[in-house]
Amino acid sequence: MLKAAHHGSSTSNSREFLEITDPDYAVIMCGQGNSYNHPNKDAVERIRKHTDRIYRTDLDGTIVFTSSEDGLKIKTEKGE
């Protein structure tokens, strides 16, 4: 699981870093309508090349990952 660096800014989460980590899940923490326009579209696309399971606090609200014997469970404030 990757917690995207610096709210998914354009200069964070380089292609090389993502190739090494190859995450199954990614979480981007950013506020809706923030003045920095985070997350950056290109940064999200770089992450999407490694996983389509991207959770964003601006879209999903609070995100909770719970690990147990049964595996990983993911709950978000707005569903799933």
Automatic annotation (TrEMBL):
Annotated InterPro entries: Competence_DNA_uptake, RibonucZ/Hydroxyglut_hydro
Name of the protein described by the UniProt record: Metallo beta-lactamase family protein
Organism the protein comes from: human gut metagenome
